[in-house]
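Customer escalation, tier 2.

The customer says the design service returned an amino acid string that "doesn't look like it belongs to this structure." They asked us to rerun it and document both sides in this ticket. The original structure tokens are below, unchanged.
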């Protein structure tokens, strides 16, 4: 893919020096955490309440990132069950002073909707209509 997905990113931020690994590139764990935050935002909105991360998988890092580059996270609801949601996320980097974008990471996140006691709760079937 040579262009980010259509629409607006769910989260966008700039990589700072504190986000670097010992080799000078942006730490992959930082990128993964930003993707998880974006996916969590979508999970909470979809389930209309608290949702907790229970699994993360299928990460790929087709390109690295440098300090000062902007990370835009796009999230897509792939599947919604009775209490759980599967959300795919893509992280796209963009030079701070340009428009060229590049896919830097992908991953899949599973969330469970929970109540105030952290007990799984049913996701309303009328959501998204």
């Amino acid at each position: 893919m040579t262009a980010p997905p259509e629409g607006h990113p769910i989260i966008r931020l700039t990589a700072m020096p504190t986000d670097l690994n010992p080799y000078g590139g942006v730490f992959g764990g930082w990128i993964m955490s930003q993707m998880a935050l974006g996916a969590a935002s979508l999970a909470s909105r979809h389930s209309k309440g608290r949702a907790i991360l229970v699994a993360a998988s299928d990460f790929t890092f087709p390109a690295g990132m440098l300090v000062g580059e902007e990370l835009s996270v796009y999230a897509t609801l792939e599947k919604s069950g009775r209490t759980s949601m599967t959300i795919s996320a893509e992280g796209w980097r963009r030079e701070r002073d340009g428009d060229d974008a590049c896919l830097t990471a992908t991953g899949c996140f599973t969330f469970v909707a929970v109540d105030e006691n952290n007990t799984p709760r049913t996701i309303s079937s009328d959501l998204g209509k």
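Tier 2 assessment: The sequence is consistent with the input. Residues 70 and 86 are 25 Å apart (CA to CA). The beta strands are 11-14, 51-60, 70-80, 84-94, 101-113. Sent an explanation to the customer and offered a walkthrough call.
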